[in-house]
Design goal:
Residues 126-243 form the GFO/IDH/MocA-like oxidoreductase domain. α4 (73-82) runs parallel beside α5, α6 crosses α8 and α8 crosses α12 (303-322). The protein has 2 domains: 2-112, NAD(P)-binding Rossmann-like Domain (Rossmann fold, 3-Layer(aba) Sandwich), CATH 3.40.50; 121-273 and 308-333, Dihydrodipicolinate Reductase, domain 2 (2-Layer Sandwich). The chain is built from 13 helices and 13 strands. By secondary structure, it is of the alpha/beta class.
Length: 334
């Protein structure tokens, strides 16, 4: 099949490399407002370059990957749907929930599949955790802990435009909690602090946060995030039930140092970048998209899924600023 990629920044170039190595993909068509980025990627992956999204959609593509700036996501998703071309779009669907809801309304009933990029759904550990929960191996759940700690904060320009740590970082934890447990979040309480880069505080954001989520069956989920984790990129999950407890991310590249006498775990070099931690997951995610394009599977992460994680992020943001519990129904407006 022939896949178009819109946006050749860090993640777009990474997706180009991944797609070029998939057996199902015969050719790539690339476009980016910065022509040099598209040209460099095209030379590396023997791809075709066009000068606009319209030209890309007219180039006979079977599916498109949207890796452009967030502001461009709604228009590019809609353009793909109007052309009848399956769409893979990096999260979020849009910069605000209102825009995201508008996109959902616009594409409902189109019959064109749309997959949103929540790569943890394709990580082997998280897949195994979900399977264990679905099989009842843990019994009734009572506690979930989900962690995302970045080794260093993103640039000031990114922070200023990201919508905040809950919307651009914690949202991965929110999505994977829903996916692994199969439950919905009903209420949140969030706190945050700033002990690192001043520009994060200046942007009205926090660099370290904690959130307690109440799920619709009474399970308690605790989410921990930080922009400053000196030992590396730390992504983990614990799922505790009345029968058993399991963990995702307890492997030799875990960026955590044990001080217990005689303990040598973890023994590997710590993860220091999200692409390192989730290389295999990204490949599985885009392989899934080629199956969506081929019509052999439904979208494994819909716009509806992405918006549910977004409502949780909005609730946590409001809770942080107003120092109070917030229900999902409050931010949803119903």
């Amino acid at each position: 099949m022939r896949i178009g990629i819109l946006g050749l920044g860090r993640i777009g170039a990474f997706h180009a490399e991944t797609l070029s190595g998939l057996d199902a993909v015969d050719s790539l068509v690339l476009t980016d407002p910065f022509a040099d980025a598209a040209k460099a990627a095209a030379e590396k992956f023997d791809a075709e370059v066009v000068d606009s999204p319209e030209a890309l959609l007219a180039a006979g593509v079977d599916g498109i990957v949207v890796a452009a700036a967030t502001d461009a996501h709604p228009a590019l998703i809609l353009a793909g749907v109007e052309a009848g071309v399956p769409v893979f779009c990096e999260k979020p669907v849009a910069k605000t929930m209102a825009e995201g809801v508008d996109v959902l309304k616009a594409v409902q009933g189109s019959g064109v599949p749309i997959q949103i990029g929540y790569n943890r759904r394709f990580d082997a550990g998280f897949v195994a955790a979900r399977a264990a929960v679905q099989a009842g191996e843990l019994g009734t759940l009572h506690t979930v802990r989900s962690t995302t700690l970045d080794p260093a904060p993103p640039p000031a320009a990114y922070v200023a435009a990201s919508g905040g740590i809950f919307r651009d970082c914690s949202v991965h934890d929110f999505d994977i909690i829903r996916w692994v447990t199969g439950r919905e979040v009903t209420e949140v309480y969030a706190v945050g602090g700033n002990r690192g880069a001043d520009y994060i505080k200046d942007a009205g954001d926090a660099d370290t946060t904690g959130a307690v989520l109440t799920l619709d069956d009474g399970t308690i989920a605790v989410v921990s995030n930080s922009r400053h984790n000196g030992r590396g990129y730390d992504v983990r999950m614990e799922v505790h039930g009345f029968t058993d407890s399991i963990a995702v991310g307890l492997e030799d590249k875990l960026p955590l140092r044990s001080v217990e006498p005689g303990v040598t775990f973890p023994a590997g070099t710590p993860h220091d970048f999200f692409m390192d931690r989730f290389t295999a997951a990204y490949r599985a995610e885009l392989t899934a998209f080629t199956e969506v394009v081929a019509g052999t599977r439904p979208s494994p992460c819909t716009i509806e899924d992405a918006l549910e994680a977004g409502w949780i992020a909005d609730a946590c943001t409001l809770s942080l600023h107003e120092h109070r519990p917030v229900t999902i129904s409050e931010v949803r407006g119903g």
